[in-house]
Amino acid sequence: MNDISTISRREFLKDSTLAGAGLVLGFHVPGAGAQTGKPGISGVEVNAWVVVRPDNTIIIRYARSEMGQGSLTSAPMLVAEELDCDWKQVSVEYASTNEHIRRNRIWGGMAAVGSQTIRLSQDYLRKGGAAARQMLLAAAAKRWAVAESSCSVAGGVITHVPSGRTLTFGDVAIDASKLQPPKDVKLKDPKDWKLAGTSVKRLDIPDTVMGRQRYGVDVQLPGMLHAAVAQCPVFGGTVKSFDAAAVQSRRGIRKVFTIDSGKVMVVVADNWWRAKEALKALPIQWDVGANGNVSSESIRGFLKAGLDVPTVPVARKAGDADQALTGAAKVLEAEYYTPYLCHAPMEPMGCTARIADGRVDVWCSTQTGEGTLATAAAAAGVPLDQVEVYKMQNGGGFGRRGGSQDFTRIGVLIAREFPGVPVKSLWSREEDTQHDFYRPAALYRMKAGLDAAGKPVAFKARVAAPSIFATLLRLPLKDGIDNSAMEGFAEFPYAIPNVLNDYAQRDTHVPVGFWRTVGWSQNPFARECFIDEMALAAGKDPFQFRRELLAHEKRPLGILEAVAKAAGWGTPLPPGVFRGISVTEPYAAFTAAVIEVSVSDKGEVKIHRIVQGIDCGYVVNPDNIVAQIQGSVVYALTAIGRGEITIKDGRVEQSNFNDYPMMRIADMPKVEVVIAPTGGFWGGVGEPAQAPIAPALCNAIFAATGKRIRSLPLSHHGLTLVKA
Amino acid sequence: MIRLVVNGQARQADVEPEMPLLWVLRDELDVKGPKYGCGIAQCGSCTVLLDGAPVRSCSVPVSAVAGKKITTIEGLAQNGVMHPVQKAWIDHEVPQCGYCQGGQMLAAVSLLQNKPKPTDADIDAVMTNICRCGTYARIRTAIHAAAAAAPAKRV
Q1: Which CATH number is A655's domain given?
Q2: Both A149 and A91 in a single domain?
Q3: Contact A346 B16 (CB under 8 A)
Q4: Range of the domain at B128
Q5: What domain count does chain B have?
Q6: Of B32, B55, B75, which one is at a domain's C-terminal end?
Q7: Of B43, B58, B75, which closes a domain?
Q8: Which of A6, A471, A540, B153 is the most interior residue, by most CB within 10 Å?
Q9: Which candidate from A212, A214, A665 shows the least CB-CB separation from B140?
């Protein structure tokens, strides 16, 4: 089930009765698909992950968030695999965020960020399932007064092998819950998995398809009010004055006010459209602060100056790159640039909050329940354990609903003005676009030296970019390096003897945040296109050039070769069609892409084929991996083609999908997915596939035209992406 | 008082005539399937069928739809039986976050009513809803699968 607590579930039902008035449109309790368990039957908690009901159905708890990445299904699959239950018995519910705090963070990480749900929780998920299995088996053995070693478990049934007697999990759950958890459990060898590793249908999809899925924006509570918000168009500015009287008498308007020391203008009404229309009509004078003159050009200049700072923190050093460059037979130098980007999830930011009797309840689409809880507690001024967060299905996340939690803070500060009354705040698309924490703009300068035989002897990369960790998370940077800004350069895989990759931190007033694939979404564009420049200078084929430099790196080499093979690298292409290639190592996974394009005289870049591969080690739900790769390609191409947030007079120039355009189905090229797992490690899935797309595409454009693309989006170069 | 027929049910709302249908459905009638995405008829998350034809309800004043038959994603299944489009969406695991998918499915239903065997070009021409998760490849596959299934009753 979705994370509606018992209390809130009752409220939802009560309210729907009122609103639906006996109609079929009444509220449906959000559930995790067709496998939603029967409501109203309480179960026995065998351990934190596994609850067994007397009817032998099983609830597996899920601690992170669901935003379409599929982990609400694949994480419980790992528990179920070790539990040896029948997947058909299983329904999934969110672990309570409040309980998590009170039980000493018993569910581990709650954030769905950094492609980490599987790779960072697999160990305790599998152990949770295995421990519950062991306790259920022990309880049955005890009841039969037989040795545990004479019992086996399959499909949620415990069998005493010699006698053939059986008990279900439901039969022994109460007994099992009273046993001490085993100190140590043995996990299955992944080669023996029966459920994990198979394409299991995602549990949340049936509710989505039937129109029953509930997102943050869909929360409906008795007596709820609706808030529209506006922040100063120039980041950091405040409300100087406003004329509430101009809109106060409009129908449904309850209150016109500012929160957060004048940073946010708010109109609350009985219907969101009324609130939004009144906000639009409200005369507001802004104090824009000190940044009213900042522009994309001034920021670009500021980044450029970062390239020229003599000494900055070093993320990767090998040998002496400067000296090697002076002795090189051939030296290359190039600058690359990637723009600010907006997340633009389909569901804009928002939050529903109710503050009553020192307690705060928050319903919201969030990628981190704990982050939401802490933010709500601070905004309401209550202890952590007096907050509950009901995680709703996220209408897209892409990093926007993770670390920032500005939408939670704003939602709770608004609710403070209406004690006891739930208030749902919702940002307009324009507000969402103009008050994001953007993918940072970044400027790169790279240098490489080749010897007389074309072998690289030196590589230098300077990244000039804002720091997400320093500005959004306000964390001190270890050795002056923002790890996200140096992704792909700090973990530089190529065997080049002299390397110097360093980081010029260039913070501006434009808020920056984690945009799907983060540094790996942009740095490979610079790195992998420049590697192609080096291959050209060396007179070598871009694939063979990489192969030689990755000979010692088994996994990057493996995925590179797998994708090249699937794409038929080196085989003849139709006239006018050319290939590009790249390889990346994001989030403990390895991805590579080969893209085929032709480019018309009018600058139409026709994508004939994308072959995209991933080695994520162990594979839990293969079809979901395919879906994530297909989606990553769209996210990447949307940005590469036309994606750009620009700044003028200190504010974002784009506002909605008319000027921040999205790829649509007519633009969708053919994507072939190569899943080439090598096992033995746990890699990410949700983000890594985006990393190699931009360089593979731009390398293909170079092959087709001889034109080297060193900045994005392509629209700046007179190029348009079209489907073949 | 404006009278509407929503998923076969007579409903009424005491609202301003210029209030967009989307907000009447969502905030007044608690019909949450149509989603707010852009408010300017760009994204299609708010798509509903109006007498069988897809409209972007964020940009349709409620006064324009009085007495008309409105179908939202909640009303697509008939007597508990899924529409072939819904079945295809499940079979092919189309949704990711799912926020846009109600609108996508209703657009697909309308397409199939007009062109029972659509070509890829037909799909490209009318399926203009935005999906930020990038489920386009599966939407295309699912539409072809639904077209191959038994035709549904007109919505």
Answers
A1: 3.30.365.10
A2: yes
A3: no
A4: 84-148
A5: 2
A6: B75
A7: B75
A8: A471
A9: A665
ipTM over 0.95: yes
Average pLDDT, chain A: 94
- Chain A residues with CB under 8 Å of B4 CB are none
Encoded tokens for A85? 């239950």
- Flag whether B154 is in a domain: no
B104 and B128, same structural domain?
yes
Chain B: closest CA distance from residue A140 (Å):
38
Residues A187 and A249 in one domain: no
DSSP assignment of A230-290 equals: EE-SBTT-EEEEE-THHHHTSTTEEEEEEETTTTEEEEEESSHHHHHHHHHHS-EEEE-GG
Domain that holds residue A449: 296-340+438-723
Q: Which residue has the tokens 């490979």?
A: A524
What residues of chain A lie within 8 A of the CB of B96, using their CB? 67-70, 627, 631
Quickly state the pLDDT bin for A376 (edges 50, 70, 90). Answer: very high
Q: Which residue of A has its CA nearest to B139?
A: A665
- Whether A55 and A111 share a structural domain: yes
Pairing of β A498-505 and β A456-465: parallel
Tokens of residue A207, six digits: 């509710």
Closest to A665 (Cβ–Cβ): which among B11, B29, B123? B123
- From the number of C-beta atoms within 10 Å of its C-beta (0-12, 13-18, 19+), residue A285 rates as exposed
Residue A430 neighbours by CB under 8 Å, 6+ apart: A655, A656
Residues of A in contact with B127 (CB under 8 A): 664-666
Question: Whole-angstrom Cα distance, residue A40 to residue A53?
Answer: 11
Same domain, residue pair A479 and A453: yes
Taking the CA of residue B39 as centre, how many other CA atoms within 13 Å lie in the half-sphere pointing to its CB?
Answer: 18
Task: Check pLDDT > 90 for residue A41.
Answer: no
Identity of the residue numbered A156: G
One DSSP character per residue, B15-75 reads --TTSBHHHIIIIIS---SS--S-SSSSS-TTEEEETTEEEEGGGSBGGGGTT-EEE-GGG
Least Cα separation, residue B23 to chain A (angstroms) = 6
Is the pLDDT score of A9 beyond 60?
Answer: no
Confidence of residue A30 (pLDDT cuts 50, 70, 90): very low
Residues of A in contact with B139 (CB under 8 A): 665
Instruction: Determine the distance in angstroms separating the CA of B110 from the nearest CA of chain A, rounded to an integer.
Output: 16
Count of structural domains, chain A: 3
Please indicate, yes or no, if residue A72 is contained in any of the structural domains.
yes
**A577-634 residue pLDDT tens:** 999 999 999 999 999 999 999 999 999 999 999 999 999 999 999 999 999 999 999 9
Percent of chain B with pLDDT over 70: 100
Residue A25 lies inside a defined structural domain of this protein: no
Q: What is the pLDDT of residues A346-367, one digit of tens each?
A: 999 999 999 999 999 999 999 9
pLDDT tens-digit series, residues A454-496: 999 999 999 999 999 999 999 999 999 999 999 999 999 999 9
Residue B126 included in any domain:
yes
pLDDT in tens, A300-339: 999 999 999 999 999 999 999 999 999 999 999 999 999 9
Q: Flag whether B7 is in a domain.
A: yes
Report which residue type is found at B47: T
Residues B88 and B127 in one domain: yes
